[in-house]
Amino acid sequence: xxxxxxxxxKSGRLNEDxxxxxxxxxxxxxxxKDQLKASARDFPVEVFYLRNxxxxxxxxxxxxxxxxxxxxxxxEKGEGIGIAEKLGFSKCRVCIAVPKSVKYGNxxxxxxxxxxxxxxxxxxxxxxxxxxxxxxxxxxxxxxxxPNIGLADAICDIVSSGSTLFKNNLKEVETxxxxxxxxxxxxxxxxxxxxxxxxxxxxxxxxxxxxxSRYVLLNAPNDKLKDIIxxxxxxxxxxxxxxxxxGWSSVHSVISKNEFWNVIDDLKDKGAQGILVCPIxxxxx
Length: 285
Ligand code: PRP
What we know:
Shape: flat
Strand order of the largest sheet: 2-3-1-4-11-5
Largest sheet: 6 strands, mixed
Radius of gyration: 24 Å
Helix content: 25-40%
Low-confidence stretches: none
Bound molecules: 1-O-pyrophosphono-5-O-phosphono-alpha-D-ribofuranose
Number of strands: 15
Number of helices: 8
């Protein structure tokens, strides 16, 4: 049986979360510290540990079949490569920043300026759309230092927490795109590999739904049940079980992680007591 070859970042911001999601979907592999390739013990998958910037080319060449990679890198270097799933981690944005001391009005202020970046294709496309001509200075790392050493007037790089910009006295002035880790797939896959990929996607979706949801258990007086249930969507409808104490029920439901605090406040106001909130490992719908 053939194996699906998946590339992940060898080291860097995506590595740990990529390893974690593979583990969560039941693909056990070694951590790749001293190796470039490892076979999963219990699934037809081989994992390649590669440099982030090289992964799009490996996908295009069909050296690997799929990859966990930042959407930003794919947009920069991976034309023609499809995205099978957005993975919800390593969120960042590709931004243009200038020194804090510079007065910035709008994008036209970049006309004729020097912009240091590791994302020349992305910046150039953005500037062209805006009708701005600038000189791109391509560097592969520590981009934020460029204005401080007189190499550029502005930079374009990924921003996550914003702390690197802050430490280098830069301010964000344009957001070109938002990015997160994705599962990217090679344009050419055999039917056998497509079937393996479908299983992986199904498992990833179950894990992501679980990560985005919370299991809620609470006690409710029976005369308030209707009110309480009205704020709990549940997967079909909430489960209601009688408590040993007469006149009370236990209510179980699933709520979205994002709505969690609002729903909890609502539940308390409506008379719910003893509210427990638990993480969900996987959700198969
Ligand atoms: C990226 C990017 C910035 C920094 C931004 O570098 O180049 O320097 O992260 O993150 P922040 O907004 O949270 O400070 P990374 O650490 O990925 O290493 P790299 O320079 O090798 O790309």
